[in-house]
Amino acid sequence: MKKLAIIGTGSAGVLSLCHFLSYLSNEWEVYSIHDPKKPILGIGESTNPTFVLSLDQAIQFNYLQNGNEIDATPKYATVFKNWRQDNFYHPFVGGNLGIHMNSFKLFKYVFPKLKNKFGNKLKKILGNVQTIINKKDYVECNINNKTYKFDYVMECTGFPKDYTDYNICNLPVNSCLVHNIDKPGDWEYTGHVATKNGWMFEIPLTTRQSYGYLYNDKITTKDEAKKDFSKEIKVPIKELQNIEYHFKSYYAKQFLNGRIIKNGNAAIFFEPMSAFSLFLYDKINRSFFDYLLIEDVREQKMLNIGLDEVAKETEAMIAYMYHGGSLHNTKFWKYAKKITKPIVFNSNIFKEIQTAFKQEYKKGTPLGVKDWVFCSNDLLKIDRNFGYNYFSSKSL
User: Fold this and answer.
1) Residue 138: exposed, middle, or buried by beta-carbon count in 10 A (0-12, 13-18, 19+)?
2) C-alpha 291, offset from chain centre
């Protein structure tokens, strides 16, 4: 039997378990390894249709029947508020469904379902992973001072302690204040609210509402951010929960190294704009599965090149959303426009998409343009809603 170990039980770990249990043959055993003492972020998460599809394929998850198990609410779109004069929404292709879910409950709900369906194909090891060592024909893991051997290991282990092996992205926000209100959310979208110091996400769950105020701590002090956050969600400053995160946006220089592949925050982290990170977790899983079908070390380079390209394209898409600014003509937004414009206009993907639309318009087939994170139909909507018109027939 071949053995794949997936370390971590956050969103990336659960998504990976679902994917590989569903697609790997019965020649494989999949090991779920995690330290129950290690906390997860658990701030309430916004997902996309690929996440729901993965749950459905693995455990026949159905929002109407099972959504209450993870405090889920439907997500029909991302709504941008105060970015332009009129609020606008970005729906999923063909009306597909995303969900908002409670991260604290996800693994506890999903794992027993996976075990019931896949039986001995799924194994669990509880403990702290002390070392992971690449060998020629296997990976050696030391877990609670006991040695295990696996054919491959996927690290979904959270934020790196050192960024030497990562590319750092120059995106506008680096800090987040979080507040949860113990009251059900009654909206069916993820809110992206432009504020004077950055933007704020709004996530509804069946048991609570989760808000995250994103800002840049080199431009805005924590006290200034708390003051505006308090105003936005109408909660007195003294009652705000002291939940805060400071982060970098980054992606790995090498996703697959020997027999060890990174996923989740160990591989990539972009600010929570439009749940792009979950899209990338799924992309890593799909690319790695394709690699496992052939297990040719010569293909490692191509896998890493492909994922590096997707990461750069995603960074450019986030910059694309920022670079036109918002209704707030503040220090933050002037800074955001300044640093993101070069990312957009110097990116290969932006130039390729513009050229492709121009060519396809001549043929009368603009919906045939390649994807840039979103499909061509959605790119046209985004382009129009943000008021850019870079891809419109009139501008080209």
Assistant:
1) middle
2) 22
Q: Which two tokens stand for residue 35?
A: 């330290």
Within 124-275, residue ranges assigned H as helices are 222-233
Q: Pick the closest to residue 32 from 155, 158, 125 (CA basis).
A: 125
> Among residues 44, 50, 43, which one has the least CA distance to residue 22?
50
Per-residue pLDDT tens for 145-164? Answer: 999 999 999 999 989 999 99
Q: At what angle do helices 300-322 and 331-345 cross, to 10 degrees?
A: 140
Residues 6+ apart with CB under 8 A from 47: 11, 75, 98, 99, 100, 101, 275, 278
Tokens of 39: 């906390």
pLDDT tens digits, 261-316: 999 999 999 998 988 988 999 999 999 999 999 988 889 999 999 999 999 999 99
Structure tokens that stand for 166 in this block: 């990562």
What's the whole-model pTM score?
0.95
Please choose, from the candidates 13, 14, 103, the residue with its C-alpha nearest in 3D space to the C-alpha of residue 59.
14
